[in-house]
Write a structure and sequence with these properties.
Layout lengths: L1 H24 L18 H4 L2 E6 L9 E8 L5 E9 L7 E3 L3 E3 L3 E8 L14 E7 L5 E6 L7 H16 L2 E5 L4 E5 L2 E12 L6 E7 L4 E2 L6 E7 L5 E9 L4 H5 L6 E8 L2 E2 L3 E4 L2 H15 L6
Antiparallel strand pairs: 1-2, 2-6, 3-4, 3-5, 3-7, 7-8, 9-11, 10-11, 11-15, 12-14, 12-16, 13-15, 16-17, 16-18
Amino acid sequence: MRHDRTMSGRWRQAAVLAGALALVGCTPGGPSPSPTAASTPIPTDVLAGISVEVRQGRSTWADRVVQVRVTNAGPGDVSVAGVRLTTPDVEGVAATDKGRVLRAGVDRDFSVALGDPVCDDPGSSPASVEVDVTDDAGRRSTVVAEPTDPQGHLARIHGEDCAAVAVAEGATLTLADAITTTDVAGTPAAQVVLAVEPVPGGPRVEVTQVDRTVLFAPPGGAVSWPVALDTDAGPGTATLPATAGRCDLHAVADDKRGTFFGVHARVDGVDQPVFYLASSEALRSALFAFLRTACGAEATG
């Protein structure tokens, strides 16, 4: 019985304390809870001024890195805390958490690396960008928008990616590390060798054309070299006589794509988008050495 009375007394004390707390919480005139900075969104007129665009620089082309350009046309400064690009053409999310201040009237580029290409069934949904922004008051919002892509970078990259994947299923393409030089109608030419090795059990691959580069072109200034390589005929090589396409030092010194050769191919009779075959470091060095001789200047690369 003493145990019951003791417990009953404790319950009465707890009830009194709870009632007192309830009265304190309901006291008229007390301050109402204010939203925290983290839960307060940035004003809509500021968010409405933020837009996104996909771009790609020449220096990041080979690495499959694109730039998401974020423009702040709104009335207030913000800071970008993160950018995420999603597209059905690649796996995963291309993202960066590198923060930058984005003042009103200014744009900034955020580089993001694309995932592996999706070629079998990429889907048809549009690309989407999420931009995490904050302001000086500590308010936070995430802008979600479909990016513009006026130069068609995402479509081009997808075409290049999937053409390279399709060709690789049936053939291995390589550019030889070494070159020889010759004279074509009085013009020095570097002999670049393209080799094709069939993949056993793979589809038929025909290489039909190789495009000139910014720095190297077929004799006479043509835009491409005609090629006739066919895996049905077994391994093969084609020689591309390359003359100096440009000799101005600015073009050579600023080169980003001058040793990437555009390849046109068919896979099981289906024409593929152009994709690019990169020169090895050894071939690149040999080509720039040739360029210095052919141009009669100290071109560097």
